């Protein structure tokens, strides 16, 4: 039997509390959980880093905690990405003929705002819809991120893709996490996620492709909205992961951590995780 070519899609739902998910109808997330897993995780204590966007996504994408990657806040600061690059860079370093995609709107991911750009280098195609240039901010930019990501996944061949939605975080800041607005924002991101997965399934060579799909977040929120501190509400995260039309092949331990995401995705893509990378996470395939 011919081995299918590995691909990976990581979808970020910014500022989504894990404990709010169970009360919602989220077909895409549930489908991933049913064939793989959905498990809560915890971001570092405030003594290491604030529960904020830049530290959270730096941790998710590099496979090391803030004590190594150096990003502890959303403010300008030096980083250690030269020693601990994000996984899109790791992938291209190992496979120079590969192709990576990032569709994002957070200024710190795609521009020099704060400690950014977190996605400097390693991205074959970067589509950046700056939240600062739309009157609705993330709420206006997320639909553009979705449409561009869907088009790229349908028409081009990316080994590794990262798609980031910010509307849930913005909604929590505006309305808190207890009401209908926040629930609706999560449902919308789940709907977009489902459409991206359906786009992958409709690719002409999908039967010959081995897709790993990951959904995760960078931090939680207080009930009334806001984050950055040390409460259990703010430190919440989660990882959902599945192989489309395939057995995941492993079960995560109770000690699953956000730093395990990057080495797990790289292993799926055929990149050997080396000891001298000094990662804090490890491939779940072990």
TrEMBL record:
Taxonomic lineage of the native organism: Bacteria, Bacillati, Actinomycetota, Actinomycetes, Propionibacteriales
Superkingdom, taxonomy of origin: Bacteria
Protein source organism: Microlunatus elymi
Pfam families linked to this entry: Phosphodiest (PF01663)
GO MF: hydrolase activity
Protein name: Type I phosphodiesterase / nucleotide pyrophosphatase
PANTHER family referenced in this protein's UniProt entry, alphabetically: BIS(5'-ADENOSYL)-TRIPHOSPHATASE, ECTONUCLEOTIDE PYROPHOSPHATASE/PHOSPHODIESTERASE
InterPro entries referenced in this protein's UniProt entry, alphabetically: Alkaline_phosphatase_core_sf, Phosphodiest/P_Trfase
């Amino acid at each position: 039997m011919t081995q299918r070519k590995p691909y990976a899609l990581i979808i970020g739902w910014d500022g989504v509390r894990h404990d709010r998910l169970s009360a919602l109808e989220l077909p895409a997330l549930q489908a991933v959980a049913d064939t793989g897993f959905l498990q809560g995780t915890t971001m570092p204590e405030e003594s290491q880093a604030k529960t904020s966007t830049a530290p959270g996504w730096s941790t998710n994408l590099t496979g090391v905690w803030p004590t190594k990657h150096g990003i502890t806040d959303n403010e300008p600061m030096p980083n250690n990405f030269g020693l601990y690059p994000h996984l899109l860079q790791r992938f291209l370093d190992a496979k120079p003929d590969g192709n990576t995609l990032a569709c994002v709107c957070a200024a710190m991911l795609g521009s020099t705002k704060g400690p950014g750009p977190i996605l400097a280098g390693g991205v074959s195609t970067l589509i950046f819809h700056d939240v600062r240039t739309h009157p609705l901010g993330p709420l206006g930019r997320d639909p553009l991120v979705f449409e561009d990501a869907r088009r790229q996944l349908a028409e081009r061949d990316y080994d590794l893709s990262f798609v980031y939605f910010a509307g849930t975080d913005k909604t929590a800041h505006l309305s808190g996490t207890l009401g209908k607005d926040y629930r609706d924002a999560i449902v919308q991101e789940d709907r977009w996620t489902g459409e991206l997965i359906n786009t992958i399934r409709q690719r002409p060579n999908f039967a010959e492709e081995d897709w790993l799909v990951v959904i995760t977040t960078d931090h939680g929120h207080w009930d009334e909205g806001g984050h950055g501190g040390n409460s259990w509400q703010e430190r919440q995260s989660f990882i959902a992961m599945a192989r489309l039309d395939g057995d995941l092949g492993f079960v995560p331990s109770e000690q699953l951590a956000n730093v395990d995401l990057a080495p797990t995705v790289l292993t799926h893509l055929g990149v050997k995780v080396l000891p001298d990378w000094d990662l804090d996470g490890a491939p779940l395939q072990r």
